[in-house]
Amino acid sequence: MQLVWLVPLLPLLGFVLNGTIALTRPQAKTAVSLIGPGVLLAAFGVALAVVKDLAAAHPGAPAVFTYWDWIPVGALHISAALQVDPLSSVMILIVTGVGSLIHIFSVGYMRSDEGYARFFAYLNLFVFFMLVLVLGASFPVMFVGWEGVGLCSYLLIGFWFDVTANADAGKKAFVMNRIGDFGFLAAMFLIFQATGSLDFTSVFSAAPSTFAPGSGTVTAITLFLFLGCAGKSAQIPLYTWLPDAMAGPTPVSALIHAATMVTAGVYLVARANLLFALAPVSSAVVAGVGALTALFAATIALKQWDIKKVLAYSTVSQLGYMFVGVGTGAYAAGVFHLATHAFFKALLFLGSGSVIHAMHAAYHHTHAHDDAQDMRNMGGLRKYLPWTWALMWIATLAISGIPPFAGFFSKDEILGAAFARGATQPIWYVFWAFGLIAAVLTAFYMTRMMLYTFHGPNRTGDKEREHLHEAPWVMTGPLVVLGILSLAGGALNLPALVGGNSWLEHWLSPVTAGSASLLPAAEVSQSTEWTLIAVAVAIALIGIIGAIQLLKPAALVPARQAPAEQGFGKVLANKWYVDELYDAVVVKPLGWLSRVVLWRGVDQGVIDGAGVNGSAAVSRALGWVGSKLQTGEVGFYVVLFVVGVALVLRAAIR
Amino acid sequence: MLLGPSLAVAAVLFVIGVLGVLIRRNAIIIFMCVELMLNAVNLTFIAFAQSLGVGGQIFVFFVMAVAAAEAAVGLAIVLAIYRHKETVDLRNINILKG
Fold first, then answer.
1. Considering only CB atoms, which residues of chain B are within 8 Å of chain A?
2. Considering only alpha carbons, which residue of chain B is nearest residue A624?
3. How high is the mean pLDDT in each 10-residue block of chain B (98 residues)?
4. What is the C-alpha separation between B57 and A115, in angstroms, rounded?
5. Structure pTM?
6. Chain B residues with beta carbon closer than 8 angstroms to that of A632
7. Based on the number of CB atoms within 10 Å of its own CB, is A283 exposed (0-12), middle (13-18) or buried (19 or more)?
8. Is B98–A630 a contact, with Cβ atoms under 8 angstroms apart?
9. ipTM over 0.85
10. pLDDT, tens digit, 9 for 90 and up, residues A207-232
């Protein structure tokens, strides 16, 4: 366990090496291919050893490793310290494990890109910051990681920055995350004011005696924390950056915008579970926003044509589920869904990457300029990409919640927990219903994506069709591993109902022990649980079968000839016009304020006018008055001189 | 010895000098009035030197030396102005106004 510092340091080393190569020898691709995934695999190995040590010890208290005194200011002492406990161990395994697979995939996917070394440098840097985020032993250390992943997200969304839209998408993500970061900072200030510390250990040990349950302070702290989560994890109202973030390369979408970074908010709530358990109102807000986001994003995903946009809204929706879980107090269930989602969503994104890779290569061969990501240009790809097809179906069944795939267990656990909470607080029945409707929609839009991409006739074009081919093994290999994980990931936390022992829940129990006693007991009978499972499976099947029955891939036409959407479909295709709404309500007024008030009014009027030109005019006027004193008459000077001497003398004598 | 009368004479001389500078317009007369003030101060120094020690007398020599130098420079300036403008009336010499 002593070697835990190696886990974040290895990716940092990779960043330094790859960054050097990117600056000096951008064409040295072999070295980059070895270093980039190599450091990740090594970090994964170290992480495994660390977690094995932790499993052997399994102490109640987290193991904190302090390295140096980072910010000593008065009473505030923040050490650069890492913390190994069950929660962070789960996270480092996901980050390094799934991260390694995505790095290996990127070797194939980004092979022909100009910025190959730069890409891996950013990707390694991202993993470093993500590990700092999950391993940090205090809020500020976590915040360093929190900001760092935001930076890497910005760099990687705008990786192809020669297209303005990509750079804009990066900027949008950065700005929206700043809103969330304000919440995180405000929460930190309040925590320090209340408890006098920012270390996880001391804050959480002081919390039960400092905060009365449901008191205003702890509610404010947790709401501010959740604002940070909403920014980072793309929840309403700050979710709009995530779909735009798909402008980045697909492995980035898989790693940052599906598997790891966007789940940081869920991790933060799970980490601060004691604070959230002390603030029932905030927990209800978390669950409510999560449920609403799950449903809202799922409706938008129904009408997207860009394969990555479907997955992006699906990610927003699934993150909503996780927040329902952690908001309900089922912290283990939330983290469980985080883990399984990392598996199947990474698989879906990498699979879509494989599809886009094939489409792009085909269009590249024939010099066509069609959209390689538009599903209307795909269809029938099953014949050309059999591996991708099979693995993506596994992921689709997993995300739809079909047993025994991973997503079924985690989603069912969250919905079950929400339903059980409804017995004491009926509002949770609403959240549960939202989750259930979102589950139908999830099954529906995922099946829609699979049907339009892989089934029916091919719409790519006659010339292009010959060039469609399966991706190389370096890309399909990681897909296979993720496929196995999506298939079997449910084993992490098999409920007792089906003969499991809820391993993950027991594993996380030291972290959630403090909050468990604060939450209302929510148990449902076994028969109810079976009913819930039956309902969930039925719902998922309705979604899948409904999609197969309703949608006609054969009737689709390529994107160029496609008619415009009509009626309600148009509203969904335009994402409920939320971007337009934000533009009208926030961006335009802010632009007006900046232009008319701040620029013309404050800058040109006050600062330039009164400040710069005004002081010049005043000194000029004073100079003019002074020059009038200089009459050139010696007599006048002498009079002034004598009067002056007389005054000085009078002052001196008195 | 005779401190009071000496100071009174010095004060009278000084006031005459000040008034002369203030009232007269002729540069030479103003100049002489300045000398008058200097010598009034010298008289004060001498008067006090009797009771306070020799320092005052030494100062007088300094003042006389400086006054001699000043007289040389001042008269030279007045002469130059006269050559230039054919007058030493200060009302006509006001080119240094702002």
1. 18, 21-22, 25, 30, 90-91, 93-98
2. B98
3. 87 93 89 92 92 90 94 92 88 76
4. 92
5. 0.82
6. 93-98
7. buried
8. yes
9. no
10. 888 888 888 899 999 999 999 999 99
